[in-house]
Amino acid sequence: MSGASQQQTTPSSAQYYSRSEMVHYTVFENRSEKMSEDIYENPIQFEDNQPYKIQTIDIDDKIYANQSSIKPAKNNGFTAQNSVWKRRFTAAVFLGMLAVLLGGILGLLLNHKNQMTSCNTLAKEKKQLQNSYNNLTNERDQLQTSYNSLTKEREQQQTSYNSLTTDREQIRTRCNSLTKERDQLQTRYNSLTKERDQLQTRYNSLTKERDQLQTRYNTLNKECPDGWLLLGRRCYYVSTEEKTWAESRQYCKNRGADLVSINSPAEQKFVNWMCGYKEYIWIGLTDSGIKGNWKWVDGTPLTAAYWASGEPDNEKDEDCAYFYSTSSDSGAWWDYTCSYEYRWICEK
Ligand SMILES: [Ca+2]
Ligand SMILES: [Ca+2]
C-alpha cells in the first residue's frame, strides 16, 4: 500500500483507475516538475479551474482533439517540416509517457493483485490465527478451569491431609499415653505379683506357724485318760498289778500306748517318781532281737542310759529291763528275765 502511495505522490502524477478504458488522473498544481512542456502546451482545462480536484477526462478525446489543432506551417518548408517532426516527437514522447504510465498502472494492478492475494492470504492466515487463538483461548479457559478445579481439589486434599495429620498426632499421643499407662500397669502388676508372692510365702509361714500353734495348743490342752499322768506332751500310766514283760507291753498296746521309754533326765526322774521308792517296774527296753543291742520298743533312740552298776549282765538269759527306784529322785536299770512279773508303766 505504501508503494501505491508513493506512486500517487510523484511529481505531476495522477491517480489512475482501471475500471474501464477511461483513464482518470489528478493533476496537481505543481507545474514546476520536469515534464514535457509540449504536453503542457495544451493543458487540460478543468471546467472549474480548481487544482487538487480529481477530474474525469476522456483522454482519447483530448488527445485526438489536440491532434486536429496541429497544422503544418505556412511560412516555409523547413519550418513546417520541423514543426511536424516536433509534433511527432512530442506525440512519441507523449505516447512513451503514456506507455510508461500504462506500464506503471499495470505494475500497480499486478502489485495490487499481489497485495490482494497477499491480503487474502493474510486474511486467511488471520482467520486461521484467530481460530487458533480462539482454540487456544478455549483451551486456556479449559486449562484454567481444570487448574481451578485441581487447585480446589488440592486444597481439599491439603485440608484432608491436615485433618489426617492431626488425627495421627492425636492417635500417636494416645498410643504413647496408653503405652506409658501399660508400662505403669505392668510395673504395678509386677509389684503386686511380688507382693502376692511375699504374701503367699507369709501365708504359708503363718499357716505352718498356725498348725504348729494348733498342735502345741492341742498338746497343751491334751487330756490324758483317767488314771494317766501328763508330762510334757506325753501321757503315762503306772499299773498297780504285776505282769510279765510281754503281758505288760500288751496291756499298753491295747490302750494305744507302749511300755515307757526314758529319753531324758527329766523323764528318768518322772518315771522314778511314778515308780515309788524301792519299787520295780517294767520299762520298754529289750535286747530280744540282737543280744546286747538294747532298743526302746517305741522306736526312740537310746540316748541316755541309767544302767545299774554292772548291768546289763544277762545273768539268767535276761532280755528285758526293769527300773528300780533307789531313792526319791534317782533310779537305775537292770536286765532281767522277761517272764518275771513286775508292775509296769505305759507311755503314749
Ligand atoms: Ca519316753
Ligand atoms: Ca541283769
TrEMBL record:
The chain crosses the membrane at residues 89-110. It comes from the Eukaryota. Keywords: Coiled coil, Disulfide bond, Lectin, Membrane, Transmembrane, Transmembrane helix. PROSITE patterns: C_TYPE_LECTIN_1, C_TYPE_LECTIN_2. GO terms for molecular function: carbohydrate binding. SUPFAM superfamilies: C-type lectin-like (SSF56436), Myosin rod fragments (SSF90257). Residues 119-223 form a coiled coil. Residues 231-347 form the C-type lectin domain. The keyword Magnesium does not apply. This is C-type lectin domain-containing protein. It comes from Umbra pygmaea.
